[in-house]
Specification:
Chain lengths: 238, 106
């Protein structure tokens, strides 16, 4: 039995997946710590009704307060919460798929992998909506003091891009795009991997040997979920 | 590959209901903790206390997901240490950048 020569009683693929996840943890943690660093360098505001300006770092719940079809209502962080639940649930279906794989239950693996893929795609759609809403900005735009060519001028700004945004300092939008974008890229590649193993499960490729590959992709998928919990806390809540 | 022919038509092992129940219970715990975070975000004033609650709850949730969903708890100890100890280096990065930010702001 080959199991006896596996180092640390884990298959080589699983071991390498863990090491890859460690390196990915470092990437995400560096981004989040850099976010905290830059945020610390800006003035923080604890006042709820402060005007957006490039001096003050915005309170995230004042920025992310829209839900699709209810754009005019003030619903802080509700949509992000829905996204979190979708990702947690798709993580749970992945656990059930891995569990079914260990029992060589092909039908159950197919069923749970399918729901995992659905959850991942819903999450990506939510993120696409949030990005487009963030980029488009408010209807009238916001008058704010910005520092341009050595002087402070008052200007109407609508939406966000990498150089300027209506919510706060330019770095705020830049960090939003980089952190959530990098996470979204991970979700996207996770969905692609899930689709590949779903296909291979359906054609019975794993039933011939074992479902170790489902377990490895499962590790990656849970990792994406854990990272989102941290992004949720450090970017949206704090 | 090992046992390719032997395992070709293995019969299905029946599900362990206790294990599946545990998975759903942990899902409930994680969801309740997330709801608790919401509650805190709206009820409490922003400040160090609120941030510590957020960070502690997040670490607690991550502990559950990594330990149970990624079943790291069932692995060998050496794998747990090899994966979790390097993460402590991040505390160092955090400390360095925090001191740097404090020095810049002073």
């Amino acid at each position: 039995m080959q199991k006896n020569i596996w180092p640390w009683k884990a298959s080589h693929g699983k071991l390498m997946m863990w090491f890859f996840l460690i390196s990915d943890i470092f990437t995400f943690a560096s981004l989040l710590i850099a976010y905290g660093f830059i945020r610390y360098l800006h003035l923080a505001t604890n006042v709820k009704d402060v005007q957006p300006s490039q001096i003050y770092w915005p309170i995230p719940e004042k920025v992310f307060h829209s839900v699709p079809f209810l754009q005019d209502m003030y619903l802080p962080l509700i949509f992000v919460g829905i996204m979190t639940f979708v990702l947690i649930l798709s993580s749970v279906t992945m656990v059930l798929a891995v569990d079914a794989g260990k029992r060589m239950d092909q039908k159950k693996v197919e069923k749970w992998l399918f729901w995992t893929i659905v959850g991942g795609i819903i999450f990506l759609c939510c993120q696409a909506w949030e990005w487009s809403h963030f980029i488009a900005g408010s209807k009238e735009g916001i008058w704010m003091h910005i520092f341009q060519q050595g002087t402070w001028i008052k200007k109407n700004i609508q939406g966000a891009n990498l150089t300027i945004n209506e919510y706060g300092p330019p770095a705020f939008a830049a960090f939003f795009f980089v952190i959530t974008g990098f996470h979204g890229l991970h979700v996207l590649s996770g969905v692609v991997l899930n689709i590949i193993i779903y296909y291979r499960t359906v054609v019975g490729y794993y039933q011939k040997e074992n479902y170790l590959m489902v377990e490895k992709v499962g590790l990656y998928w849970h990792f994406v979920d854990v990272v989102w919990l941290f992004v949720f806390t450090f970017f949206y809540l704090i | 590959m090992y046992n390719r022919h032997k395992r070709a038509y293995t019969s299905i092992i029946p599900p362990n209901h206790q294990k599946i129940k545990k998975i759903w219970r942990i899902t409930g715990i994680i969801s309740v903790l997330t709801l608790l975070e919401y509650l805190c975000a709206f009820v409490m004033a922003r400040g160090v206390l609120l941030y510590s609650i957020f960070i502690l709850l997040t670490l607690y949730k991550a502990f559950y997901i990594i330990g149970t969903f990624m079943h790291l708890r069932e692995e060998k100890k050496i794998l747990i240490y090899a994966t979790m100890l390097p993460c402590l280096l991040l505390l160092f990065l955090f400390l360095v950048l925090w001191l740097e930010a404090k020095a810049i702001m002073a």
